Amino acid sequence: MAWSWRVSERGRGQAGLLLAGLLCLVAGSAVAQSVDESPDVRVIVDVSGSMRTNDPDQLAASALELLVLLLPDGTAAGVWTFGERVDSPLPLGEVDAGRRADATALRPALVEYQRYTDIEAALRKAAEAPANGWRHLVLLTDGVIDLPPARGAKPEVDDASRRTLLEELAPALAARGVVVHAIAFSDAADLALVERLSRSTGGLPALITSPESLLSAFADIVERIFPADRVPLVEGRFSIEPGVEAFSALLFHDPDARPLMLVAPDGTRYDARNPPPGANWQMDPRFDLLRVPDPASGKWRLEGEISGDSRIGVRGAVSLQLTPLPAVVHPELTLPLVAWLARGAEPWSAAPEDLAISVDLLDADGTVQMEVQLQRQGERFVGELTVPELSGAARLRLHAEGQGIVRQRYLAINVQPLLSLLPGAEQGQGLDGQAGLRSLGERFHTDLATGSDGEAMPDSAADRFIDFIHDLPAYAAALWRDSRPWLERRGAAFAGDPRHWAVAGLVILTLLSLLLWRHRRVPRRRIHREDPHV
């Protein structure tokens, strides 16, 4: 996919072109294996002793139960726990009713706390089982790599494991089709590791700032793996149009909130003890999950207090589609957008004439930072969105509406400064959007002898650049995986039209002519020679 930077400053533009060129060179060889569209999900939960303090209410268990509830039937899923050792309380298997019950029974295993934290071993163990599709590892940790002293002198042994994880294991995982969505459960976590590990494998990084944000992060990851349509939920009200086969309501709320009530278009009232016919209503202290088959068309409403991140998903013959986009983006990166309504697996040729599709970029607070109206081109709608100057968690909201049909899709992303691609700028600045990013020159002089807080000297700017070059293959692999379907479609269309080859040839000849002209125009430097003298 043709990601590009639009910059006004010459130096930044050249840096963007350099990065784009390097990515193009390595992307073709970074991913060699062919995979199908049947990803599996493997959850890796930190059970080190610090989780006793950071998760007293066992929110990790609630998030795990929510994730298993949201996964489609037949998905391969499993759970691993880690501290000093790695255990598998729920081995990899297909999700069904029995599997969901097993996941609910895992709470005791998540409080068998251990003393140390071996993140590298946990990732290796969870990723080793083969798969038929992309493997998505969801890593939840609240700390840093902390190995037993018996493994070697500290902190050298911890630092060595961290380097191996980021410089060897992460690129190898990306090349094998393994995506790591890393979640930092507290500020004490290694935010830079979480950010870089996710970015280099194509995953979504997240920093948890509240109990609700953990559940929302898990739901966002599921929606990235298994995209689903939504309808707008405004002040507890939503509309179901004719033809919708089922809807699901994921409703977040406080633990002490009153039980929720669902009111149908005809005024019939339902609750968890008396759900709609054929519906399944599951309750948790922090969320309700309701699935309603064959719902009546019309306006529905919810009574009770729910959070703003609650959502209504719908399933029907018509769906909203969007070409793949990366999980981590950078300011001034231009994202090409191609969207369409599909009926079955094909674009809907009879889509409403008045159909309009727009894309909004929302920040972590839900405020619209950028809005784009896509332009219709046949059965598809196209446009582009330039990422504004912001940092941290964000969402893309795709909205389609026409002749009574309304569909939405949300895509969680993380915006990180372009300089964060130099992994030595390890401040975790892309996760929470709070930490500032000083210039590399300022950091180089300030930290020449010691760190800014008097600690040991950090990696030099040269070291960070070398790490950045080392990470390019893994980063390109993630971009290649996300963009490959779009590139294949565009390549097929290009090859089938002789006009495209003519244009490409003309562009190449023009570029070669400009380079030759510039070469001839560059004056030769005269060398002034002096004879030696005494």
From TrEMBL:
It comes from the Bacteria. Pfam families: VWA_2. Keywords: Membrane, Signal, Transmembrane, Transmembrane helix. CDD domains: vWFA. InterPro entries: VWF_A, vWFA_dom_sf. Residues 1-32 form the signal peptide. The chain crosses the membrane at residues 500-517. This is VWA domain-containing protein. The keyword Disulfide bond does not apply. Gene3D superfamilies: von Willebrand factor, type A domain.
